[in-house]
Automatic annotation (TrEMBL):
Any one Pfam family match given in the protein's UniProt record, by short name: DDE_Tnp_1_4
InterPro entries: RNaseH-like_sf (IPR012337), Tnp_DDE_dom (IPR025668)
Superkingdom, taxonomy of origin: Bacteria
Domain Transposase DDE: 8-120
SUPFAM superfamilies according to UniProt: Ribonuclease H-like
Record-given protein name: Transposase DDE domain-containing protein
């Protein structure tokens, strides 16, 4: 590739991000074990895995959990925020999420929840 050292370095960094994203899709979204020997079932699995992977990344960016220039690792995001150890409690008609007292990601989760709830709906 021709160009200045900065352009070549940026090109290779962008390529590395793409390769890391594909690796994360394979390992973090369930593509390391395609469940069936049937072509159409595997196609459906692939489509759902890609949608889940993209939704995970978008929620992480929109909820400001991960800065836009950083990589979202699906497995880490899932372990910290989706596989939440907690209990949904109904207190006087108001639903409350009870989490462990020393849950290390409570602050990030609450900030993301407030940020996501404040987003305007997309017009159809």
């Amino acid at each position: 590739m021709e160009g200045s050292a900065v352009e070549v370095d940026q090109f290779h960094r962008n390529r590395a991000r793409i390769e890391l994203s594909i690796k994360d899709l394979k390992e973090g979204a369930g593509l390391e074990h395609i469940p069936s020997g049937k072509f159409h079932a595997n196609g459906a699995w692939l489509a759902h895995a890609v949608i889940a992977h993209n939704l995970t990344r978008q929620v992480s960016y929109l909820g400001e959990i991960t800065p836009a220039e950083s990589m979202v690792i699906a497995r880490t995001f899932r372990n910290h925020f989706i596989s939440l150890v907690g209990r949904l409690v109904n207190r006087s008609g108001k639903m409350i999420l009870r989490t462990p007292a020393r849950w290390p990601w409570a602050g990030a989760f609450m900030r993301a929840l407030v940020t996501l709830r404040a987003l305007e709906p997309v017009p159809i």
